[in-house]
Amino acid sequence: MSLFSHRTHARLKPNTSLPTSSWQRSASHNLGTEARRAAIPPWLINTASLIVMGLLVLMSLSIGVADFSWSGILQSIISHSANSDSSLLIVSRIPRTIAIILTGVAMAVAGMIIQVVLKNRFVEPSMVGATQSAALGLLVVSLLFPASALIIKMGVATMTAVVGMMLFMLLIHRIPPTDFLMIPLIGIVFGGIIEAVTTFIAYQTESLQMLSVWQFGDFSGVLAGRYELLWLTGGLCVLAYIIADKLTIIGLGDNIALNLGISKRQVTWIGVGMVAMMSAVVVVTVGMIPFIGLIVPNIVSRLMGDKLRRSLPAVALLGASAVLLCDIIGRSIRYPFEVPVATVFGVVGTVLFLWLLLRAPSGR
């Protein structure tokens, strides 16, 4: 005979008195959201995002100061000879569009990774000191070794980004899990301090103009031969998809990761290194673009839940589409002049970030 009757089993309830982390509460909320939205399958969301991105790509290729027509491209293909339209498309328009897509994908995926590692939905690379530290390292190596190769500058920027993220993680080590809104605020202050130090060094060395190139993300200078470093971020995004299940387990808690045989320290270091390298490559190539890694993962998580392997494609597609849209807006509102993408996304991202902060208590 069983020690517990059927009625006893029916009365058993899980213990809800144990404290849970903010990430676990957010995961529970997102799981509920996922169940309510089960009528929209993930493949449908990805297909719609891909169609939207395709339309934005066509708009991005068509908009610009220089004269351009698709009929000239068709004529060049038929006659098998290059003309001004085909040269403009190959040298400027296509490289710029590819750079925008790779940047959006990299920063969105990096934001998703850092949110999982830190177990907090309100952080992204620019809020943990990664992009600011990368800019500081890039400035220092440019001042000390101005003739160094681009790969060396990227390596130094990556190392300083890792150091900056480690310092941030030490700062938030003693913060209780319930004060999850304090982490992004501390990150903003921490990034502001690093940025102030960087600006002071640039001011003393008369390098403010060079620093401004890295502090404001802008794609106006992207040409063939000046963006290929961004393909490294594409490889890192593929690596993130490969280890997505391990990152998801790390986000569920230390005890669960230990019981499943996942090395938390090893996966955390891999994630931090990937975020640092993505941030460094983007800063070196096009400059800082804030809020992509914050807004895009939160939107996708509300639609598709916290299973990283399923949501990463949607995060990548939405990140690319968001940067494409902001670049098109920046090129259109003051035509023929351009507003940097970082400025456009900064305005939109600030509004959405405040909305997420105000909505978080009721959503939880």
Q: What would you note in describing this structure?
A:
The chain contains 16 helices and no strands. The chain is mostly helical.
Brief descriptors of the model:
disordered N terminus; mainly alpha; 364 residues; 16 helices; single chain
Brief rundown of the structure:
The protein has helices spanning 6-11, 22-36, 42-62, 70-79, 84-118, 130-144, 150-171, 182-204, 208-215, 231-242, 244-252, 254-259, 264-285, 292-304, 308-332, 341-363. The protein is mainly alpha-helical and 364 residues long. The chain starts with 5 loop residues before the first helix and ends with a helix.
Shape label: globular
What's the end-to-end separation, in Å?
A: 43 Å
What would you report as the Rg, rounded to the nearest angstrom? 23 Å
H-E order: HHHHHHHHHHHHHHHH
Number of strands: 0
Would you identify the regions where 5 or more consecutive residues have pLDDT less than 50? 1-39
Mean pLDDT: 81
**DSSP strand content:** under 5%
- Give a quick account of the main beta sheet: strands, pairing sense, barrel closure: none
Total number of helices = 16
What structural class do the secondary elements suggest?
A: mainly alpha
The percent of residues in helical segments reads over 70%
Can you lay out the helices and strands and say which pair or pack?
Layout: H1 6-11, H2 22-36, H3 42-62, H4 70-79, H5 84-118, H6 130-144, H7 150-171, H8 182-204, H9 208-215, H10 231-242, H11 244-252, H12 254-259, H13 264-285, H14 292-304, H15 308-332, H16 341-363
